[in-house]
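Hi support team,

I submitted a single chain yesterday and got back a structure, but I'm not sure I'm reading the C-alpha cell output correctly. Could someone confirm the output below corresponds to the sequence I sent? I've pasted both exactly as they appear in my results page.

Thanks,
R.
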Amino acid sequence: MKRNYKFLFWLLQLTWGILDNILGALIFLVLVIFKQKPKRFHQMVYFEIGNYWGGFNCGFVAVVNKNPSEHLLKHEHGHFIQNMFFGPSEILIQLASAIRYWYRELKYYRKGLRPPKEYDSIWFEGQATRFGYKYLE
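Hi R., thanks for writing in. Yes, this is the structure output for that exact sequence:
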C-alpha cells in the first residue's frame, strides 16, 4: 500500500470502522492470553488455529486455519478493507458470511456434496476476494 494511502486507510479503520477493530482487539487479547502466536500479513494480524476450515476477520485481526493459503489471507484482508467502506455495518456482513459458511458446510460439504454456486458468487465474498487481490498486488 502506498505511503500516502496508509494514513487514510488507518484513519478510516479507526473512525468509521472502529467497532470491528475493537472486536478484533478483544479477539487478539484473548488469543494472546491463551498463548496463540500472532503473525502479520500486510496491515492485518492473524492467528492460525485448527485445520481445514477457512477463516474469519474482525478488523485488523483474522483467525484462519493452520498453514493458510495466500488466497485465504488475501480474502480475509479483503474483508478488512471492506470495513473501511461499510464501517459499523461490516459486522452484518460478517454475520451473513458466517451463516452462509455454516449453511454450506452442513448442507453440502459434510454430506460429501458440492454447492451449486462458487463461494465468491455472493457479492460480499466476491468483493472481499477482489479487494484482497487488487489492493495487495
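A quick pointer for reading it: Strands lie at 39-41, 44-48, 55-58, 61-64. Let us know if anything else looks off.

Best,
Support desk
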